[in-house]
Each structure stands twice: as structure tokens, then as C-alpha cells.
Amino acid sequence: MEAVFECPLRVQAHDADSIGRLKVNSMFNYIQDMASAHAESLGVGLGDVLRRGMFWVLSWARLEFTSLPRFGEELRGRTWPKREQKLFSIRDFLFLDRCGEVFCRATTAWMLVDIQRKKAVSARCIRDSIPYQGHESALDCLPEKFCPREDAEDVYTRRIRYSDLDVNRHVNNARYVEYLTDCFGLEHHRRHMVKSITVSFVSEAKFGDEIRFRMCNGMEKGFTCFVEGCDNEAGTPVVQASIEWAPLEPPRPLCGK
Fold first, then answer.
1. Where are the beta strands (DSSP E) in the chain?
2. Would you report the helix, strand and coil content of the chain in percent, each value rounded to 5?
3. pLDDT of 100 over the 50 cut
């Protein structure tokens, strides 16, 4: 049983933004793929839990960055299951650049959902298959709910289309993060990088749903903004996030230069 999973990564063209930096939503794709691959190797992957009438969902995540790699860079990812927390299975990640330096630390909370009842079930039913590494921690924080923000202002509205859907026929976490970062304009992205992002995936969005994105612009308060997407009909939150920004630094030199 491989307690820690490692794999090589490369910043492909579709992973990079308009100035060649790794996009934050691409990091969530890496997280999804690595967690899936490790779970498969442990015998608790999607196919395994589907046969038991369940599926995995990412409920919450926090990522902290020191820098963002650029298009073409070779990276390495490392992940391990850390602990149980109520109904959550906590999984941590480290991402290293070509020099072997950690540029991103992440902690994530996953939940098993019963297919028929559409309710969360305890991961204890598969505990023996998950080698929790409680002594190893990328970030020492746990899932928490966001407080309602009445001062958020509308930014844009998006209707969920065919291309937004994943294999489970709903919007996946990386797409949600893409929508959240679209609340900020081109010049903002050119002048800033995400220093940290904390996301709560509250409910699923399906084909035809209309999501209204709102934001509290807190740039004058430490460069942190609250952003959320709400079901436009019900008014209930679908995804919520706190994004901390930092002024963009010049590109890093290559190793040894």
C-alpha cells in the first residue's frame, strides 16, 4: 500500500494563462487527477466506491502559493491522505518546481456521497483501505463555512452549458474555480497573482442552471476578496471562495542561472 503518491507534471498550453503562468484552476485539475490516481491504487477509486453505491466529491480546499510556474515547466506533485475530520477525508498536497522547491501547498476535504440518497456518508466504511499519515501536513487548517456577505455586488451571470459538465454530469471543481477567477479583469490578472485561495463547494450545478457571481472587493484590505456563485433562481450559494492576491513578481530565473 503506497501511503504517499508522487507523479511528474508539466505545464501544458491549456494549463497556462495569457502571460504564460500556470492557471489556478489548472492546479485543481492536478489535484483531482492525483487524488483519483492514488485512490485507484488504494482500491478506493471511483470505480471501487461506485460498486458500493457511492462517489467521491471535493467539498473544500485551500491552496497557498509562493510562485506560479510557467508554460513548459516540469513539475512534481506529491499527495497523501492525512486524517478523518467528521464526515471528511482530508488529503494534502505538495507541488514542487523544476528546482525541487515547493511552490504550492494544499489541503483538501473529500466526502463520500450515497448515490441513491444524495447524502454524505462516513468514510469509515473504507477506513482500512486509506493509509492516513497524520504526522505529515502540508497546511494546518481544516474545513470551515463562509459567513454570509450581504455587501457582495453582482459581477456576471453564467448559464451552465454542455461543455461545463464532467463525467458525473455536473460542474467539477476546476470549472468552478475558473468561473471565480473570471470575476477579475485582464489587467488585474496581469498585475497580480493568487497568493492563497480557499474554496467551499456548497452544491452541484447542472445543465441549464444559471449561476450569478458576486464579489466583495477587499483589495484595500490586504488584497483579499470574497467571491461566490449563487443559483440565480433560488438565490442559494453554489460555490464560495476567499482569494488573496499579491502584486505580480518578475518571472523566476531558471535553476542555476
1. 5-10, 54-65, 74-85, 88-96, 102-114, 120-121, 153-159, 192-201, 210-216, 224-231, 237-247
2. 20, 40, 40
3. yes
pTM above 0.90, yes or no: yes
The C-alpha atoms of residue 224 and residue 239 are separated, in whole angstroms, by: 17
pLDDT tens digits for 175-192?
Answer: 999 999 999 999 999 999
* Single-letter amino acid, residue 132: Y
CA 195 to chain centre: 14
* Dihedral sign of CA atoms 217, 223, 224, 229 in order: positive
- Name the helix (H) or strand (E) containing 96: strand 88-96
**242 pLDDT more than 70:** yes
For the chain, list the domains and their CATH numbers: 1-143 (3.10.129.10), 145-250 (3.10.129.10)
Q: Are strands 237-247 and 192-201 parallel, antiparallel or unpaired?
A: antiparallel
User: For the residues 64-85, what does the mean pLDDT come to?
Assistant: 96
Cell output for 3: 501511503
- Say how many C-beta atoms besides its own lie within 10 A of residue 68's C-beta: 26
Distances (CA, A) of 58 to 91, 125, 127: 10, 18, 18
